[in-house]
Amino acid sequence: MSCCWHFILLLALPALFLALCVYYSRVNRKLASRRLPGPQPELLFGNLREVWSYDKPRSLVLRDWSKKYGKIYGFYEGQRPFIVVSDYAMINEILVKQHKNFGARARFIMQERKDGPDTKITEARGHHWKRLRTFGSMAFTPKALRNTFATVEDSATRDSALDYALVRCFRFATILLMSQKMICFEVFATVKSQIENPPNVHDAPLVIKCVWNEESSGTQHNNYYSRVNRKLASRGLPGPSPELLFGNLREVWSYDKPRSLVLRDWSKKYGKIYGFYEGQRPFIVVSDFAMINEILVKQHENFGARARFVMQERKDGPDTKITEARGHHWKRLRTFGSMAFTPKALRNTFATVEDSATRVVDEMERRQGEVDMLEYFQEYTLDVICKIALGMRDVQMFNNEYLDVCRDILSRPIRHPIFALSALFPALGDAIRAELMALASRIPNKFFKLMSMMQQTIEKRKFERQIGDSERDFIDIFLDAEIDDSEVEERHNSERKLSSNEIFFQCITFLLAGFDTTSNSLAYLTHFLSNHPDVQQKLIDEVDAFLAENETIEVDKLADLKYMDAVIKESLRHYPLGSVWLEPTDRPRAAFQSFGEGPRICLGMRLAYLEEKVVLLKLLSRFRIEKTTSTNPIKLVGSITVSPERVMVKLMKR
Ligand code: HEM
């Protein structure tokens, strides 16, 4: 008997093997037998490895196959055959006209074949789907949506509006970037470029940072570090290879090659949209004009938040500066800030600006031989901003204690172990971040020195106000609106007031923003003029004509300096300080992008133009700028911002 069984088994096994061979030689051929093209399937697995890949999402794989195999082709998920259609008429036929025959959606492989109570609406079919759809639709009637609107708006304002952002963000970005977890973008412009290579200025990128849902990174803690730094790649975005944990920190925090130059080079390599990591913070870099315009202007409501410094708390608080504030809080700060730059406010400050300009040019005259224009312009812009923004009337040009501190903050590398910690572990709570910040403040650091100096300046100004000093500066606009922190229950809802902390941080922002940008811009401009004597001559002619016509300089008359206006814009186009290049064909618009675009456009733009025009009038009426052997090439340094290391020229008396 056992012999008989052995005999049967002996025959059955090869038969089974043969049957399997026949079966598997036929599976994965169903599509081919229908003459459908498609990628070659592997035995048993079909095209599973490609369509389940983590590094290249399925829809990108399908997109590439569509290009290769045409508007209708097939592939296999294991042994499940799929047909991919990209012909509009056919899609319409399938989804609309023939819906009854094609109404069933492909199910997840683990889903039961028959509908049951567990079947979700996305996978349900036939009558079961109709029932679920009827109930589901009730939640989305216009009336139901009106009822939920307040909640949606509230969530969106609070910055955690995953769903809201997903729905509202414009389509292109949605498809490309935001498949699931991205909750919002922050716009953060650091676009600078290089003089040595003017045509490439156009490629300077805009950086958008993506913020990921904090909760999800917390819950996925187990495999978090094995997956970090892969979010961008999983969305099909190219970019430089990130190091584990550190991402691309070493490159973007380098002092020798400022961040925006690194980004410019990556843009050339990876194209108009790519990603990189600052520690574990993913950034997306965009250099496409239409998209930037969409982000900064048209979709400002969705992309209005600018990337924050790694140590900045995640939620707005009284310490949040206007440059980093968001939503309603930003609007409040912007309203107060704007009061400082109205034409009337600028007229009030004009005498101070003119006085500082005269002093700096006098000082240039005292120095013989070569001069570093950057040094002088830094003295000038710092003098102006200290006097008009901070009420420091007795500050001395060329003896300003703020100068070294500000220079140091803006030109030194941002590398700091505590900052790096925050970049490596972005999920750290704000409380821990605040503790780290307190720790950092014990280590000698220029930023903390600046903070304590600023505190003293504000206290001094408050005292002067009490004793009746009637000078009106920007700071007074803030101090007029001051209330004690304890008086404000919900700080961000206090419409017409600023807490003392808010005032403090706005002053620091004005100081840093007002000092660095304008002095760099002027230094670049003189470098430009020394290399283009023909442009300089035309400018001098305009200056002479202007001064012949106007005995005294008046703010409103400065608009007549049309050629000067164009030169300032053109030099900013060559050396963008914080904005965007454009395509060579967009040149006229590009020139206007140096101060940003949309509602978050530079707040100090009018002051910057005013300062530049006044000092240029003074300078060019007395000197001609000539290049020396040390003028070229210009060396760019910095970390977040890019500055010329120095701009050496000779001033020849006219
Ligand atoms: C040539 C000089 C300057 C240039 C090229 C420049 C450029 C910029 C750029 C590109 C932005 C970002 C705009 C955006 O995100 O779209 C910005 C923002 C800002 N700038 Fe300027 N800036 C200059 C001078 C100044 C001055 C003199 C001040 C103030 C005293 C100032 C204060 C600010 C502030 C407060 C913001 C943030 C505005 C907000 O977020 O609402 N800037 N600047």
From TrEMBL:
UniProt GO MF annotations: heme binding; iron ion binding; monooxygenase activity; oxidoreductase activity, acting on paired donors, with incorporation or reduction of molecular oxygen
Q: Which Gene3D superfamilies match?
A: Cytochrome P450
Q: Which UniProt keywords apply?
A: Heme, Iron, Metal-binding, Monooxygenase, Oxidoreductase
Described purpose of this protein according to its UniProt entry: Cytochromes P450 are a group of heme-thiolate monooxygenases. They oxidize a variety of structurally unrelated compounds, including steroids, fatty acids, and xenobiotics.
PANTHER family for this protein: CYTOCHROME P450 FAMILY 3, FATTY-ACID PEROXYGENASE
> In which family does this protein belong, per the annotation?
Belongs to the cytochrome P450 family.
- Quote the protein name from its UniProt record: Cytochrome P450
Q: Gene encoding this chain? A: WBGene00106365
